[in-house]
Design a protein that fits this description.
Layout: H1 2-23, H2 30-36, H3 41-64, E1 65-66, H4 69-81, H5 83-86, H6 88-91, E2 95-96, H7 104-124, H8 127-136, H9 138-156, H10 169-179
Helix pairs in contact: 1-9, 3-4, 3-7, 3-9, 3-10, 7-10, 8-9
């Protein structure tokens, strides 16, 4: 069932991204604003979390699954294409490992960076500016939808214990792996 949810979310993301980009494309200045340092901190936060989430997925799958070469392509593609690449793992689900590998240093670094990015975005960002960018910038719009689809992927992952902690998504993902809070 979880795998089916992941596949449906992935297909939705692909269809939505294509339809929105082709038929409703208002253009994008976000990447230029990001590189000049003028992007809103809240949008900066979401953009950078879209890098921290694939890192968490990469470590999760590397620790708990027997990966083939093409799985690494999907996981690495997640750093550039987000859920568009990561979702393929639900279609081509690898076999579970009998003994997980631990990557504590990467998980601690990921957690610290994630918390720093979230604190920066929430304290210095503007929800009004983000909503305006969501409505007028294709990249921010699709990036936001991608973020929510990655959350669905996270909830659909096998092995994760479900609970209130999962509402904290990215930090919770790192914490659960650090504590070994997996089934």
């Amino acid at each position: 069932m979880k795998r089916t949810i992941g596949i449906i979310a992935w297909l939705f993301l692909i269809a939505y991204g294509l339809i929105y980009s082709i038929f409703f494309n208002p253009g994008s200045t976000f990447l230029a604003d990001l590189f000049t340092g003028s992007a809103d901190p809240l949008a900066f936060m979401v953009f950078n979390l879209l890098g921290m989430i694939p890192l968490a997925f990469f470590v999760f799958f590397w620790q708990y699954y027997e990966l083939k070469w093409f799985h690494y392509l999907f996981l690495a593609g997640g750093f550039v294409f987000g859920g568009f690449a990561t979702g393929a793992l639900f279609v081509f689900m690898p076999e579970a490992k009998p003994v997980p590998k631990r990557q504590t240093n990467v998980l601690v670094a990921g957690l610290i960076i994630t918390l720093a990015v979230i604190i920066y975005g929430l304290f210095f960002g503007s929800l009004d500016a983000y909503i305006q960018a969501f409505e007028t910038d294709t990249f921010v719009h699709v990036m936001t939808i991608d973020f929510f689809v990655l959350f669905i992927f996270y909830l659909a992952l096998p092995k994760l214990n479900k609970g209130v902690i999962q509402l904290f998504f990215v930090p919770a993902f790192y914490i659960q792996m650090l504590l070994g809070d997996l089934t």
